[in-house]
Amino acid sequence: MPGPPGPPGPPGEVIQPLPIQSPKKTRRSPEGMMADAADNILDYDGMDEIFVSLNSLKQDIERMKYPEGSQNNPARTCKDLQLSHPEFPDGEYWIDPNQGCSGDSFKVYCNFTAGGETCIYADKKSEGLSYVDVEGNNINQVQMTFLRLLSASARQNFTYSCHQSVAWHDAVSNNYDKALRFLGSNDEEISYDNSPFITALHDGCALRKGYARTVLEINTLKIDQLPLADVMISDFGDQNQKFGFEVGPACFLG
User: Residue 242 pairs with which residues in a beta bridge?
Assistant: First the structure.
């Protein structure tokens, strides 16, 4: 059984609430308000510049991924252009192998039928062997270096027109002692006795009878050899001998 209730305890202390202090209002000067507004405007301008830069970068990437072969949107090589546009026909297009400023891009012949070859031409106005784009402009060495770096093979034809002069095989002596000798762009000598990359597509000069022609093709994995830099003719000097030659385009395949 519970016992009787005890006497009441002493009264508790009453805690008064703290007074509520309202924050002090500060008056801002018009100059300060204008400065804040100007800062906000600068922030928005900065964002606009960032968005413009990002959009420009996006467009540059899209142009690199999908080149058109135009002067403003050149491809690195004809092979790259073919991969982006397999429906494009053979023809003349702009390329920029070093992918720097498109101002140094140049126009070439793209042989898509042969797998996407990039072809440059011998300069017919030059006394020696030099090469130009399809518009007759010189190609700078930096672009040529990059074109070679982007290629896996290269080929070039050389047509020799003859009158009683051997170009490749000498059918009378049954040897190649008087075969043409070429100098590559890398200063290597290229001929029958030191290169497996030369093939006679047609050798009408072998018989040394009348007028004929021989067509040689250099198809090499040593990219630095092409385009050809010079040629040495061995079977020449007799009174009745005549010759001429035509240098074909140098075509690079990546």
Answer: 163
**Worst-scoring range by mean pLDDT, 11-25, 63-77, 179-193?**
11-25
| CATH number for region 153-249 | 2.60.120.1000
- Phi and psi, residue 154, nearest 5°: -150, 150
Rg of the chain's alpha carbons, rounded to an integer? 39
d(CA 170, CA 180): 11
Q: Strand, helix or coil at 224? A: helix
Q: What's the rounded mean pLDDT across residues 143-162? A: 98
pLDDT surpasses 60 at 174? yes
Structure tokens at 220: 């090499």
| Intervals of CATH 2.60.120.1000 along the chain | 153-249
Dihedral over alpha carbons 224, 89, 248, 184 (to 10 degrees): 0
SS3 label, residue 80: helix
Alpha-helical runs (H) found in the chain: 30-65, 78-84, 141-149
Q: What is the DSSP letter of 141?
A: H
Q: What is the reported pTM?
A: 0.76
Residue corresponding to tokens 């018009």: 30
Per-residue confidence (pLDDT) for residue 102, from 0 to 100: 83
Give residues with Cβ within 8 angstroms of 112, minimum separation 6. 78, 82, 88, 89, 90
Please count the residues of the chain: 254
CATH topology of domain 66-150: Transcription Regulator spoIIAA (3.30.750)
pLDDT tens digits, 202-227: 999 999 999 999 999 999 999 999 99
Phi, then psi, of 159 in degrees rounded to 5: -105, 125
Q: Are 251 and 149 in contact (CB under 8 A)?
A: no
